[in-house]
Amino acid sequence: MFPAQLPPASLHRRSRSVLGAIPLAAAVLLVTSLGVEATLWGQAQTSPSSSQPQTKTPDKPTQETPAEAGGPTGDIGPIVVPKKKEAPPPEPVKRKPPEGLADYSMRVDVPVVNVDVQVLSKDGFLPGLKKENFRVLEDGVPQKVTAFNQSEAPITAVLVVEFAHTNYRFVYDALNASYTFANSLKPNDWVAVVSYDMKTRLLVDFTQNKGEVFGALQQLQIPMFRDTNMFDALYDTLDRLDRVQGRKYVVLIGSGRDSFSRITFDKILKKVKETPNVGIFTISTGEAMLIRADAAGYIGPTTRLDFLQADNQMRTFSTLTGGWWYKPRFEGELPDIFRDIASRIRNQYSLAYHPSNAKQDGSYRKIKVELVAENGGPLQINVNGKRAKVTVIAREGYTARHQVE
To answer: Does CATH place domain 113-399 in 2.40.50.100?
Structure first.
């Protein structure tokens, strides 16, 4: 038998040389053998798989292999492939935003309410209280105080002065009170000065320089208009303070009367309630002159009603924001008034809490601050060995932010 690697042409030449040297029968047998060999070699070239021996599988009942075997499925069922250990899931790929688009992220704002509280006895500010001594109620629901602090903080305030051609005594009282306030400032206090008649004017922006404050007040020499648009001036001041961080104050000095502001009383009340972290201290002017004019019979019922309404407006602004309303009769009261204002502003307790009502629906929530003992009962405070009457002053409420803001 010849090797299978010989090509058919070489087999043909080889067979002719061999035929001449052997008998006929042997030659026939040899030729036949060579033909069969060539035929098998040709089939091996056209069908490589036919060279592999085929083993007949005996007829046995087949056992179905579950699909979990992992291999491909054929005519005889799935092929079993050894399972590999499951690899941990790949880390998520952080995709960069397309060019020209910002990388946006979501943020959830948790509302925080800050409340400044003044605790006063007849001798002034009462220090030494702890966080456990304060109970904060929002719409009657107790709140958990999360932050507490007592410190002597510098003042950030706007002095708003009425300067209109109404009555000399009103102007004199307003300027005298303004100079007394400026003189009581400390080096680290920030103060701006605003005046108003029918228009609101910013005389000097926030400064720590007393000289600039006095220079701004010296501009108020001769009043030009009789109109006192107090609502417009206060609204504009609160709008500016809304962009100033931290706790701010407004010291409003004037008669409290409003001529014909574009802003109504309802709108200014809403603005006062919506402006956070602002306390308003109001000082009504001309009280001594009003008392003398009323005693002499120069003030009729309508004018008296106008000034009563003016006092009520000044008192309302201060009460809503945790400030105080003053109505001095004599010039000698002004230094004590501004010392009291400075004491109330600088010495106070600062509380903060996350409201249980987290809805941002723009509703107005009432706040009430009470003093309690550590066991939850009423707090009794003794000053100089005697039980003291204590006054707690805080803003009456706040307006929750609206969801669309």
So the answer is: no
